[in-house]
Amino acid sequence: MINITNLSFNYKNNLPIFKNVSFSMKNGIYGLLGENGVGKTTLLHIISGLRFPKNGNCRVFNYESAQRTPAMLSQLYFLPDEFHTPSMSIGSYAKYNAVFYPHFSKEQFNSYLNEFQVDGDKNMMEMSFGQRKKAMIAFALALNTPIVLLDEPTNGLDIPSKAQFRSILSSLFTEDKCVIISTHQVRDLENLIDPIIILDQNQVLINNTVEEITQKLYFSRTPSKPQDALYTEQILQGYSSVQINEIQQESTLNIEVLFNAAISNKAKMRELFNA
Ligand SMILES: Nc1ncnc2c1ncn2[C@@H]1O[C@H](COP(=O)(O)OP(=O)(O)OP(=O)(O)O)[C@@H](O)[C@H]1O
């Protein structure tokens, strides 16, 4: 659905954010992870055509994203982390903006607002950050675009709203959708995101499904520290570790531990995942 080929990008007079990067994204709820400043938001901007590659290209379906053709824009919605909302209700906002998206469902929109307990008639200028965010998430998801880009969607959401967000997203996800969620709040999205992309300076370190990751890496919690661990974190009950999965044991992915293991073993991760 999204093909990035030999992409290079830098902001004016700045060091490159991406250097000759190629990768693709198919269907799935992608978790886009990376340290602060590595380029997650920039990548979402490039995919949605808000920033242009310096070299190479980014194609969304068969459209060059930089051209921002109406046909491409109707297939994709990008919800930034922070945004300005006009002085109107989310109901009016939807009325004026949903016309650009052929699969918008008013029924879904109302049901998501209801689930989030957001008043569709209240002026968004009079809402808290979290209420505004939920209003915009309800709008974004009710558009039913095949591609949805969400930058830190759980930022500002209270604990019940995070659970509602997960449940709405899982209920509307279908095999023909590509949702990309850039986040630092991986615990909010555990058991939801798959595949996982980890960006490293100028490059993609990992772009793999959870199954591929757990085939190559073994995640454990043990009372004592495993000798051959790639990464170990002390926890209350002992150690949470990542080892190379030499004998194909099954384990449950721990995204935070994966991320820390990846960042502290970049060369090994490249070798393992061929990224
Ligand atoms: N408009 C801009 N002009 C110049 N540099 C910029 C601009 N926007 C971002 N940058 C720089 O580009 C780099 C990537 O920024 P970006 O916001 O994409 O990172 P990020 O991975 O989303 O970070 P975070 O996790 O902190 O949100 C950072 O070093 C940032 O300082």
What's the arrangement of secondary structure elements?
Elements: E1 2-10, E2 16-25, E3 28-33, H1 40-47, E4 55-60, E5 63-64, H2 70-73, E6 76-79, H3 90-97, H4 106-116, H5 129-142, E7 147-151, H6 159-172, E8 178-182, H7 186-189, E9 196-200, E10 203-208, H8 210-216, E11 217-222, E12 231-235, E13 238-244, H9 255-264, H10 266-273
Parallel strand pairs: 3-8, 3-9, 6-7, 7-8
Antiparallel strand pairs: 1-2, 1-4, 4-5, 9-10, 11-13, 12-13
Helix pairs in contact: 4-5
The structure holds adenosine-5'-triphosphate (ATP).
Pfam families: ABC_tran
InterPro entries: AAA+_ATPase (IPR003593), ABC_transporter-like_ATP-bd (IPR003439), ABC_Transporter_VariousFunc (IPR051782), P-loop_NTPase (IPR027417)
Protein name: ABC-2 type transport system ATP-binding protein
